[in-house]
Amino acid sequence: MTITKASSWMLRFPSNRAAAERADEEFELIGVTLEDSSGETGTGWTFTSDHGGGGAVKALLDDILVPRLKGREAHEVETINAELFHLTHRLGYGIASMAISAIDVALWDLKSRMAGLSLSRALGRSRATIPCYGSGKASPSLPIDDLVSLSAGYIADGFKAVKIRVGREPDRDVDRVRAVREAIGPEPLIMCDANERLSLPAALWLGKRLADLNVFWLEEPILSQDIEGYRRLRSALPMAFSMGEHVFSRRDFMPFIREGVTDVVNPDICFVGGITEAMKIGHVADSFGIGFAPHFMSVLSVHVAASLPRATFVEFYPFMDDLLTHQLLVKDGEIVVPDRPGHGVEFTKEAWRRYRVA
Length: 358
Fold this sequence. Notes:
It is a single chain. This protein is α/β, with parallel strands linked by helices and 358 residues long. The chain has two domains: 3-116 and 349-355, Enolase-like, N-terminal domain (Enolase-like, domain 1, 2-Layer Sandwich); 121-336, Enolase-like C-terminal domain (TIM Barrel). It has helices at 54-65, 77-88, 95-115, 119-123, 144-156, 170-184, 200-211, 227-236, 250-259, 275-287, 298-306, 349-355; strands spanning 3-14, 26-36, 41-49, 129-134, 161-165, 189-193, 217-219, 240-243, 264-265, 291-292, 314-316, 329-331, 334-336. A six-stranded parallel β-sheet has the order 5-6-7-8-9-10. A four-stranded mixed β-sheet has the order 11-4-13-12. Strand 2 and strand 3 form a beta hairpin. Helix 1 (54-65) crosses helix 3 and helix 9 (250-259) runs parallel beside helix 10. The chain is globular. The mean pLDDT is 95. It comes from Devosia enhydra.
């Protein structure tokens, strides 16, 4: 089947209070919808948060990439992904990788639907549930009582792990993590994510104190490009390290994997070039014995993780549940892999009406 229609769109909607650092924080979804000659459709997207920028991604889609999709064979996902990479690589990673991600996700959605399969089955699903950790309810702006209540709520709902954001005020972070640990007990895992905010000395200081609270991993304590800094942290601190939500291709993951300075890679499917590239990163991680826990976009990550037998976790981050006709189901700390055709994500009519800006 050939692609007969291709268009882009953008939704802009407010972040939820439990995740936001500012009252006016917003997300933008920049998407692509494809239709083939049989009338089947596929949808994909990337996202921006906090400071916007979705218009730049959409401009690249509209001006350069989307027009090249019409007339292509819908099943040629890998070929199209490679062509778009070579077309844009002189622009650098970032916006180009995000735009390619939206197209790649749409292509995989369309290809899976054409075959009558869920995305995970089209990728070679190896399991029906995936361990997850509760995320998206731990903004540094939250009062400590709210942080404790929301984290404990995840545990009460059957989650066995939660993530707390740190890094804005390291001395205050210790008290916040300690309060959560005391509330949930010694068994559940706690991950801490600094969002690349710390200097090396601050990361060393905070890391030593978080280790005393049995933190499972420390995520992106310093800039994701600072391999020497990660090497020094690795030699000084006992907990696992994870990184990668701001790394935009498997090529840029390789130095960290080869050097052994990270234990878990966290690629974001919406940033690295889509499903195609995320699967390759997963296979590389597996080859080196590195954990794989894709970042953020749970509704897509669950399909990729289900197709990689040694994937470690999926981040359960329900940031756009109010926009969707179906939500992910979590049982006993594991996400049940959806079996609807394609990725199974459908936006409500109300979401299109209320939040569509382009």
